Amino acid sequence: MNRIPVWLTDEKAYDTIEPLIDRDSSFSLEFLAAEARAITLRRFGRTISLYAPLYLSNFCSNGCVYCGFASDRNTPRRRLEFREVERELEMLKNMGIKDVLLLTGERNSNADFDYLRRCVDIAADIMPKVSIEAFPMSTNEYRKLVDCGCTGLTIYQETYDPEQYRLLHRWGPKQHFSERLETPERALQAGIKTVGVGVLLGLSEPVEEALKLFSHVRYLGKNYWKAGLSVSFPRIRPQTGGFQPAFPVNDHFLARMIFAFRIALPDVELVLSTRESPSFRDGMTGLGITRMSVASRTTVGGYIENAGDQNGQFEVFDGRTIEEFCEALRNKNIEPVFKNWEPVYNGPNTELNPTR
């Protein structure tokens, strides 16, 4: 059942951000950029936090039309065995990475909860900060991951339009719109310290998506105000299957969206991944974005095997090395931050209960 909660269509939330993000807005892009830059400098300084994704498995039972890992793709399937997980993590650690995001496809017999929990356990012994981007789980399951050292969850709603959601997710557990929408709350109730949300830009009308995404973040911030929140802005990239977005988003609108979110959400982490071009990512440094992925591989075993993006979830756009990317940041007087978290803080936060 695709139930739409009241908070997702919060008119007060819309009134906050719509004047900034609407294509007919009276605010110029230059004005928004200047405001976003000033807020970013005051709140976050001249820094960008860096992380790397680590794909554990590409087995999946979902039928998402936009994903290179959908179950009807001809992508070769595999998962990392635990020794391989250790090797990939050690490789990332030797590259300087200290913040890792573990990714899987939908829950299945090859990569189930017990598999993910063991991978989190391994990662927490090697990395100071471990987050996940995986299938939705129960509150109890998230609590067990917290006990293993998981501090963060990233989960995109993909689209907040229920009808589009139904059409885009042809089969599999991901068909359940409401269950996915409620996932961030289950994680926060379990003690996960940081939750990242976002939409996959290109799937539905982008202004409407931005309004609902803002409403979602505002709702989480009100009810779980001790948690850390982040917002990502992924756009569709070429992938196995050749899906083309019905609502393509250009650089101008994406920049406006990022600036608007920074102005309306001054304390929230804004994330830009290697889906974007080097020139766009360089242009956004210091202008709202505070966290970026670097040297990403979207293949299982991609760091040890150095296999590029062939058979990956999607094509990476910014393929620079860590050294090249950090040099570009420093040329703009921005300091790359590899570690801002100590493992001693990895225990559950028992105070992340809703205020309702």
Summarize the structure in words:
This protein is an alpha/beta fold and 356 residues long. It has one domain (6-340): TIM Barrel (Alpha-Beta Barrel), CATH 3.20.20.70. The protein has 13 helices and nine strands. The protein has helices spanning 11-21, 29-44, 82-95, 113-126, 139-148, 162-168, 177-181, 183-189, 206-223, 251-264, 278-284, 302-305, 322-331; strands at residues 47-55, 99-103, 129-133, 152-154, 194-198, 228-232, 269-272, 291-293, 335-337. Strands 1-2-3-4-5-6-7-8 form an eight-stranded parallel β-barrel, surrounded by five helices. Helix 1 (11-21) packs across helix 9 and helix 4 packs parallel to helix 5 (139-148). The model has no long low-confidence stretch (mean pLDDT 92).
